[in-house]
Amino acid sequence: MNRLLITTGLLTWFLIMLAGCQQKNAGDVIANKIQYDVSIVSPDPDYDWWIQNLPGPQREKLVDMIIDGAKSGKFQAYDYFNQPISPQEVASILSDTTFFSVVDENPPYEENDTMVVYNIKRADVMRIRFLEEWIIDPNTLEIEKKVLGIAPIARRIDAMGIERWQPLFWIYTDKDYVKTLKK
């Protein structure tokens, strides 16, 4: 009887260990790279609070973490062309300078050059752009998303009064992906 219990116990232990050592199904890659914007401030006040919105403290913490980390050099920032940029260059990106000409409405209708400096504040960052890799388990349809990079996006009004969304810089969170940028 004792021998049967010991054998059963050892067999059970062996099967549990074997099951634990099996690799999880790696899944199928849906997208090596997919990029999209996520609003972090709701575009419509009639939406439920959680639709396209992060509550204020969490939103502020996330934006501060990204911007402060890039400005301090804690996180390496990259420009639109995936070139590394310094913390000083990040700071200059956050200070948007626009030049335009204004014609005086009164004679002699002189044209004057005007410079407007606009500092991008936390509240101006209303979206986050994500670069991700998506993998799906074909048996369960469970999707695993791996964030490769994030970019804060600020709402800007240009000199012509046209609204545009400006990605400020990229921070790549995946070291293997960063290696592919250097090729």
Question: What's the short version?
Answer:
The protein is of the alpha+beta class and 183 residues long. The protein has helices at residues 2-21, 56-72, 87-93, 175-181, and strands at 28-39, 77-78, 84-85, 95-103, 111-119, 125-136, 143-157, 163-167, 170-172.
Q: Describe it for me?
A:
The protein is α+β, with helices and mostly antiparallel strands. 28% of the residues lie in helices and 38% in strands. The chain has helices at residues 2-21, 56-72, 87-93, 175-181; strands at residues 28-39, 77-78, 84-85, 95-103, 111-119, 125-136, 143-157, 163-167, 170-172. The protein has one domain. The strands form two sheets. Strands 1, 2, 3, 6, 7, 8 and 9 form a seven-stranded antiparallel sheet that branches. The protein has a two-stranded antiparallel sheet with strand order 4-5.
Tell me the structural class.
alpha+beta
Largest sheet: 7 strands, antiparallel
Gyration radius from CA atoms, angstroms: 26 Å
Tally of strands: 9
The average pLDDT score comes to 84
Number of helices: 4
* Structural domain count: 1
Order of helices and strands: HEHEEHEEEEEEH
Q: Write down the overall geometry.
A: elongated
Q: What share of the residues does DSSP label as strand, in percent?
A: 35-45%
Helix content: 25-40%
Task: Note the main attributes of this structure.
alpha+beta; two-stranded antiparallel ribbon; 28% helix
Write the layout of secondary structure elements.
Blueprint: H1 2-21, E1 28-39, H2 56-72, E2 77-78, E3 84-85, H3 87-93, E4 95-103, E5 111-119, E6 125-136, E7 143-157, E8 163-167, E9 170-172, H4 175-181
Antiparallel strand pairs: 1-6, 2-3, 2-9, 4-5, 6-7, 7-8, 7-9
Helix pairs in contact: 2-3
